[in-house]
Write a structure and sequence with these properties.
- The protein is an all-alpha fold and 471 residues long.
- Helices cover 77% and strands 2% of the residues.
- Strands 1-2 form a two-stranded antiparallel ribbon.
- A hairpin with a 4-residue loop joins β1 and β2.
- α2 runs antiparallel to α17, α3 packs antiparallel against α6 and α15 packs antiparallel against α18.
- The longest helix is centred in the middle third of the chain and has 36 residues.
- The protein is globular and about 75 Å long.
- The protein starts with a helix and ends in a 9-residue tail after the last helix.
């Protein structure tokens, strides 16, 4: 929900803050969560393997609630940006655990489909977030506390309400068991067996005595030395084993795979997060600058950036935020975008086992190139929404396919770290893209869209050399 809060705040809350640096400040605000993600992602991947998945799910989302709430009561741009930084750090720690836990509860036959299904819930989240934005941000709420020290506007209340989703997630993850596979890697066979028995009783409604494998791992449990001396050496030995497991990642063929997958994730995440996070803002601009005679997207964006430069030249600098509340159209467009994002995952879930992840990725890449180039010539709001939605939906599917390819090609001992490296590169791309997009947009509308299309042509061409793992 951190990304969702950021997206709606960047686009739905205000069209402009301080005119001279409005677009750049929005870019920095969009980029700060990714700075946090990049700074801890690899370390979080290692710690997740060391201490387990559940602690990072519960603690990560609990901390996300705290900092989203702090962002909601923030009174300055600096506090809001800092809160977003910590949100990104906590989200990265939680995300590694979510992906790993999901894959470890699924066998190879359904893992690809389950990963795509899990990713599809981002679309549902977008729809719910847009509907909540529509209900809250269109209100005119303003209240002050402590003799005016803290002034809360509508967007403050919105962030406070949205923080409850993270709190709910933290509470729900408390109900889930730890990964049995994690306990096995730690040679804690008895705990792993108890979790499997508990899952069996809940799924079947039968008693634990009817579990078909009552002696599972009992022979291995007898060989495990559970003395205090061994427990004291666990962290040091695990650190040594973890460092030893890293070595294959930097040798052929895994090293070359990691470079290829990371490069592709870098550019696909640029497209996905730039289009997704800037869509509400661009939709709001189109809503304010469109006329019956002109609905060309690039003409409207160029008019907006021209107006910003004109205000910068003709007015004095002001620190006063001037809200321009989005109309119904912006929220409706976000609902449409989120709804469309679910469709490719349904189709991919059906085709992935028949066509294969590589060829699905190539087709998705070609579609994003066409949709991104089409934005340059979008001459109506319907075309604009359709192309933005297609871009976001297909790019999100490409990211999920990329993760599935990594899970397929990397062994269990390096899988979490490989995902962490992959997502670090992707989030660096998101960071770079959100900072560069307003700068490129200031040069002219066609510049960012042609740049994004060119990058997608590049990674689509590279995807032809993706390895196909035989089953």
């Amino acid at each position: 929900m951190s990304d969702l809060n950021l997206q709606v705040l960047a686009g739905h809350g205000n069209v402009e803050t301080k005119a001279p640096t409005a677009m750049q400040e929005k870019g920095v605000l969009n980029a700060m969560p990714f700075v946090g993600m990049v700074s801890v992602c690899v370390v979080a991947g290692f710690l997740t393997d060391t201490f387990g998945r559940k602690i990072f799910l519960v603690g990560g989302y609990g901390g996300l609630f705290v900092f989203t709430f702090i962002g909601g009561i923030s009174q300055t741009y600096l506090v809001l940006v800092t809160a977003k930084l910590f949100e990104g750090m906590l989200f990265a720690a939680s995300f590694n655990a979510v992906v790993t836990l999901t894959s470890e509860f699924c066998h190879n036959g359904i893992r690809d489909r389950m990963m795509l299904l899990q990713s599809s819930f981002a679309g549902f989240g977008q729809v719910i977030g847009a509907l909540m934005s529509w209900a809250i941000l269109t209100q005119k709420w303003r209240d002050s506390y402590f003799n005016g020290t803290i002034v809360l506007n509508t967007w403050n209340f919105y962030l406070i309400i949205m923080s409850m989703w993270s709190l709910l997630a933290s509470c729900l993850y408390m109900l889930l068991p730890e990964s049995p596979k994690y306990f096995i890697t730690q040679k804690r066979y008895d705990e792993a067996r108890k979790i499997l028995i508990n899952i069996y009783t809940r799924n079947t409604g039968k008693t634990a005595d009817s579990f078909p494998y009552p002696n599972l791992w009992k022979d291995k449990m007898k060989l495990v030395d559970e003395s205090p001396e061994l427990s004291n050496q666990k962290f040091g030995s695990m650190l040594t084993v973890g460092l030893h497991n890293i070595k294959p990642m930097f040798r052929r063929p895994l090293g070359l795979y990691l470079i290829l997958f990371s490069f592709m994730m870098f550019f696909s995440m640029i497209l996905y997060n730039v289009i997704r996070l800037w869509f509400p803002q661009l939709s709001t601009i189109a809503e304010y600058y469109s006329t019956p005679e002109n609905q060309n997207l690039c003409v409207m964006l160029d008019a907006y950036t021209s107006d910003l430069r004109s205000r910068n030249f003709n007015t004095t600098k002001s620190d006063v935020c001037i809200p321009a509340v989005s109309g119904t159209e912006t929220y409706l467009n976000s609902v449409i975008l989120g709804s469309i994002c679910v469709v490719p995952f349904i189709i991919s879930g059906i085709l992935v086992s028949r066509v294969g992840k590589k060829y699905l990725y190539i087709v998705c890449g070609l579609i994003t190139v066409g949709a991104t180039l089409g934005l340059r010539w979008a001459s109506s709001k319907i075309e604009m929404v359709a192309l933005f939605s297609t871009d976001v939906a297909i790019a999100q599917t490409m990211n999920s396919l990329n993760q599935a390819l990594v899970l397929e090609h990397f062994p269990t001992t390096t899988r979490s770290l490989a995902i962490a490296v992959l997502m670090t590169c992707g989030r660096i791309g998101s960071l770079v893209g959100n900072i560069l997009f307003p700068i490129l947009l200031d040069k002219g509308c066609v510049v960012p869209f042609y740049t994004l299309a060119g990058s997608m042509i590049c990674i689509t061409s590279l995807s032809f050399v993706l390895p196909v793992k035989k089953k």
